[in-house]
Amino acid sequence: MKKKYLLAPGPTPLFPDAVLEMGKPIIHHRAPEFAAILAQVREDLKYLFQTKNDVLVLCSSGTGGMEGTVCNLFSPGDKALVVRGGKFGERWAELCQVYGLETINIDVEWGKAIEPRLIAEALKRSPDIKGVFVQASESSTGVRHDVQALGEIVRPYENTILIVDAISALGVFPILPDQWGLDVVVAGSQKALMLPPGLAMVNLSEKAWRFAETSTCPRYYFDLRKERKALAKNQSAYTPAVSLIIGLKEVLEEIKREGLEKVLAHHARLARATRTAMEALGLELYAKDSPSDAVTAVKVPPGIDGAAIPKMMREQFGITIAGGQDRAKGKIFRIAHLGYVDIFDITTGIAALEMVLKKLGYEVTFGKGVGAAIEVYYNSGGQG
Ligand SMILES: *Cc1c(COP(=O)(O)O)cnc(C)c1O
Known about the structure:
- By secondary structure, this protein is α/β, with parallel strands linked by helices.
- It contains 14 helices and 14 strands.
- A hairpin with a 4-residue loop joins strand 6 and strand 7.
């Protein structure tokens, strides 16, 4: 028997109270009982997103929320500016292309964050850009983009909106759509929300809703205006993922009970502990300048077989971390620390990593990474 640990950037470990609720016999989605649940979820999502606007709940993985954004707010030929600094930035570009948008890509070196002035310059050059697409946390590289700064830049352009993929950011570090001028914020159930994959959440500003009135892209299932109308009556347009929404209700209640600020502080502490541990082991962070608190990407040391690290972690210790994708394949590994994860999950992962690295020929003093993580945790108020 091998105990399993999930330290990948989604899916993440499930919140036990939610699992228990989701295991109960299903209820009908048009029954008053379910409408009451949706009403509560609606209110609590506004708290989580720190917004006064409704947050739509779609039944799909996070990408469905991204696709729904593109095909509901834009039209073929519209100009889109895409921050492409990793796999998920590429996804925005691909989605825009599929729907016939004229896509201008700003390629950012993997591991680096977008320099906001590049967006300002691009908008000055082409004020007819209708959408700026970015990730708040680019999970493939472990980078955090400064979406607050981008919000400031885009806000004065009346015919331009800022679309933020916050799928691995929401519930991890502050995302303030109303305050920062983030016109669309997309989240997913399987990251910090501690649920199985299957729900996408989309928050739109009034400015973004205006875009929905003129969009001519084809769509059927992901019709945001239809969902908005249904949600106003505590309903969904089609049969929703009833069980997942019941799980979401539990999770949101827990986040509210704990307080969002505390939840974010917890993530910041775990992230700092992980990064410090990696440096204590002599490893180099991939996203040194602007690391995301959701996932820590680490460079594989020279001479070490990078692909072997996640493989050995899983096979020998039952611990799932992520490797690198595409051009980062074999060059980095990624340890996630979001959702239902605590310091002991992190120190377990680091302890196993120390052993795996040693086995692969890297010089390790056992406990050095673990000790550094505990020290950061303790000194940053984690001991309570
Ligand atoms: C997980 C993730 C997604 C969504 O991927 P799905 O597999 O469709 O849920 C999108 N963007 C980022 C930054 C992510 O971390």
